[in-house]
Design goal:
Layout lengths: L1 H12 L11 H9 L3 H14 L3 H13 L5 H30 L4 H10 L8
Helix pairs in contact: 1-2, 3-5, 4-5
């Protein structure tokens, strides 16, 4: 979830250049940050945690497959359980982001803030 949102944010906020054309939003952000070798460890931990895990997608598919087979109250219980797990996942992603962000210089933090800003929504 966060990975998809991050990708959309970076794609909209990042200027295209000959060096970044064809790169994923995650790769572009990595390039814009100009990380030191010491920061690479933190980047990899952050990237791994914020990448949408396959188990989350599988969990959603499994719950959706059960919907036609269960009662309305059971569907509500499934949705509630899924939302609780999404919140746990989001919390873990937020912790990974905060840990990585703390390793960045103030200049890199500004780049990160700018490049991950969600696109402005039309009124």
């Amino acid at each position: 979830m966060l990975a998809a949102a991050l990708g959309a944010m970076v794609a909209c906020a990042a200027p295209a250049s000959s060096q970044t054309v064809g790169l994923t939003p995650e790769q572009k952000l990595h390039d814009y940050l100009r990380l030191t070798p010491q920061q690479e460890v933190g980047w990899e931990a952050y990237r791994k945690q914020t990448a949408e895990p396959n188990h989350a997608q599988e969990r959603r598919r499994s719950a959706a497959a059960l919907f036609p087979k269960v009662s309305a109250p059971q569907r509500m219980d499934l949705m509630e359980a899924e939302m609780k797990q999404e919140l746990v996942d989001l919390h873990q992603q937020a912790q990974a982001l905060k840990s990585f962000y703390a390793t960045l210089t103030p200049e890199q933090q500004k780049v990160f803030d700018t490049q991950t800003l969600p696109p402005a929504r039309s009124q």
